[in-house]
Known about the structure:
By secondary structure, the chain is mainly α. The chain contains eleven helices and no strands. The protein has helices spanning 3-32, 39-45, 53-58, 61-87, 93-111, 117-125, 131-139, 142-153, 160-186, 196-211, 221-224.
Amino acid sequence: MTSEATGTGRSGRTRSTRELILVAAERLFAEHGVIAVSHRQISEAAGQGNNAAVSYHFGTKADLVRAIARKHSAPIEEIRRRAADEAGDSADVRDWIACLVRPMAEHLDALGSPTWFARFGAQVMTDPTFRPIMIDESLSSPSLVRIVEALNRCLPDLPPEVRAERGDMARQLIVHTVGERERSLAEDTTTPRYTWNSAAAGLIDALTGMWLAPVSPAEPREKEER
Length: 226
């Protein structure tokens, strides 16, 4: 066997091992939370006899979380870019909210059940240590920046503080609604919507109503500070 063939074989085994670790870590993080899962547990779930396999291939737990996020970000980014191109110059709030919701639903649908990425995202977003990683990955998405800017242009009269508040609400609703549906599918329990496409439509309806809801008059600053 030539050295080139040996190198190719070793490279292939490395990629295979990394993928096994990523899949095992994503599932365990989704089901138990990031902090509760050790490198040893991930190595065992990935079928690796060496307990240092996770550290060798990925480094720290933060590095592993980022690797899982990036594994899914590329296909989601492509779907989101396509959706934004189709929305074009739309001034309809619903069109841009659809661009935020449908890419994740379409990606999970394409993976087939069970999936773990939505629950993984929900776990990470509630962990103060690892949440910045997911936010950093989102901010690096050109299509997401484009969509948020377009959505803001559709709501010129919305005060900046209300826009920020509703942005936070929208993020929470998307992350946890999608995660809850994924959990129900994995456990084979009843879901309100039959398909991911229908579930996305329901979420878009709710978010559109939220973004377009009337704004209550602001209370005086002194009352807010009490």
